[in-house]
Structure formats: structure tokens, C-alpha cells
Amino acid sequence: MDYTQFLDPNSINMDYTRIMDICKISYILDRFSIKENDKILDVGTGTGMLIPFVHQHNPKGNIKGIDKSKHMIQIAKEKFKNIENIEFQLADVECDTIKGTFDKIILFSVFPLLENKISTIKKLIENNLSDDGKLLIAHPESRKSLNAYIQTHSPLSTPKLLDIYQQRNIFRQAGLDVEEAFENDRIYYLILHK
């Protein structure tokens, strides 16, 4: 089962059913050092739940959200139709070519849904990340909490998150540069660069 078949029927309610801890999101985005006028790619944007936080850090920069769910992209486009530096595209990051280069690429609460994690991250870094750009993989929950949720609620065969140091080492063995890897009982994130 494709994750869009699981999420699409609930996409209209997605913003209301997902509890987002503003302090955690702000902390993670602060660690990511978004600069004014950065071009940002939000991979797996869904209904654009992260967009207001990114836009607050970067009100003048261009933000592009991509997702493979047609329903979620439609909702995101409607929500942000009056903000000119935000755009959305229906795209599957694992299969489609994403055009453009970006100063920052964000995968927020989407990493476990990727089937080909390493090759997808490599492709994004090689093809879409600017020379001094950074890529963020983040979750506003602990690994333990997220893995428990996946195990009990997901009808998908979604792999669990690995220990942050195991994931960092897998990326490094694949030739990727990990700048920071952190997890505790509240958050999980990795920052990679070109």
C-alpha cells in the first residue's frame, strides 16, 4: 500500500489531527540556520503544516513544497494561495526529477516513509542542494515514540527509525557528510551538507 492511499482520505483533517509542538519545531529550525532569502525545498510537505514556521524564519525567500499526494498538495495550494514566494508541486521525491537547487532541503516527519532512503538523500544532495547548502531530516517526536506509533497505527510496512548514531554511520558509509546528529526523548534530527 502506498502511503498516499493511507493519508489521502484524512488529508482535509490533517492540520487538525496532528499535534505540533511549536517549541520543538522552532528549536529544530533554529539549529538548521535558515538565512534570509534562502531557497528552501520542503519534501513531503503534506498540507503545508511546516510552511508557516519556515516562512517565519525566511519571509523573503522562496519556499517550494513537494508531495506525492494530490489531495494534500491541493489543500496546501489553497491555504497559501495569497503568498507569492511559496509554491507547491505534485512530485514523488523518489521517482521524479525535482528541478532547481536549494540552500536548504527539509524532510520533516517523512524520512520513515521513503522506500529508498540512502539513494533518495544522495540524489537530493547531489542534484538539488547548493554547494554550501544543508539538508535536514527531523521529527518532533522521539525515535521511541515514533517507532511505537508506526508499529501500532500504520497499515504500511514502514521501517522504524534507527538509533541516531546508527543512521549517521550509515549515511557516512554511503559517502554523505553528516554535520550534526541528535536525538533525545523529545526530538530526532540529522543535518547533512554537500
Automatic annotation (TrEMBL):
<dbReference type="GO" id="GO:0008168">
    <property type="term" value="F:methyltransferase activity"/>
</dbReference>
<dbReference type="InterPro" id="IPR025714">
    <property type="entry name" value="Methyltranfer_dom"/>
</dbReference>
<protein>
    <submittedName>
        <fullName>Class I SAM-dependent methyltransferase</fullName>
    </submittedName>
</protein>
<dbReference type="Pfam" id="PF13847">
    <property type="entry name" value="Methyltransf_31"/>
</dbReference>
<keyword id="KW-0808">Transferase</keyword>
<feature type="domain" description="Methyltransferase">
    <location>
        <begin position="34"/>
        <end position="154"/>
    </location>
</feature>
<keyword id="KW-0489">Methyltransferase</keyword>
<dbReference type="GO" id="GO:0032259">
    <property type="term" value="P:methylation"/>
</dbReference>
